[in-house]
Amino acid sequence: MTKLSTYALATLAAMPLTTTALAGDMVIIPQGSVTDAGRSLKSAIPSITNPTLHELAVPQTRMHAMVINHQTPDQVKAGGNLVTVGGDVNIVALQLEYALNDRLSIIASKDGYIDFNPSTASPFTDQTGYANIAAGLKYAFIYDEANDFAASVALQLELPTGNRDVFQGRGDGNVLLTFSALKLMGNWQFSGATGINVPFDSDEEALTGFASAHVSYQLTERFTPIFEINFYHTFNAGERGSVPTDFEGGGFFNFGSPNGEVNENIVTAALGARYKINESLSLGAAYEVPLTEEEENFMDSRITLDFVYKF
To answer: What is the CATH number of domain 37-310?
Structure first.
């Protein structure tokens, strides 16, 4: 943007009223900020972190592609002992949502390909495979355009279609029930979700819950900084899961560990931003770290890049 155009935009934003003389008549035009133009529930942006659980309250027709680089801790606690892990997990996934109307949509929030690369000192070995698939319906029981507020409930079925080598495909699947809310206030967006993940086979997978919050501010017409926080809780541990860690997987993974309740709470926080290329396409990026003890969760850090195409 040139210095001249920047100065012009700043001048317009500072003027409460603009008066224009046209054919001898005085026309008074109220001026709002540039970024307020076109703000509506339909322009709400999705979260970047915790993408398989944190549903946006507003139904949209969109494709949400993501690439995740998940660094694992050098050591984690398992049965009270330290086990070497290290390395990283790379995930490529594509979410789909189709809005039947303003209130109801079909969602497919989990799938993807997983590449697990532990350190050479770890008892684990390099593995690749597919994630489980989850899909269902989302219904906005509140859709208040006048007050820029929406609330919805979503029900999804996750099938054990993935590969066990990458901590998927265990048990008989599960049901995920999610409640989401969204509020726009000027250039601010506040959104959140909470839910519970109930396995059909409680021996193989844990009963878990989560709560996620998103705060963003539309700094310019295209650029929006984002802050997000995620909380994961293990209600009931599994009995014969794939990994006997003293915690659960925290969102994307469900180990079904018999020791999963030792550290029943995991909290992460993230800073990021979304950039709108045009009305249909936006790019997002976020850097996420755990706020709980590094050795008591499966995350050392995580970088998420996503691409959202709305149509």
So the answer is: 2.40.160.40
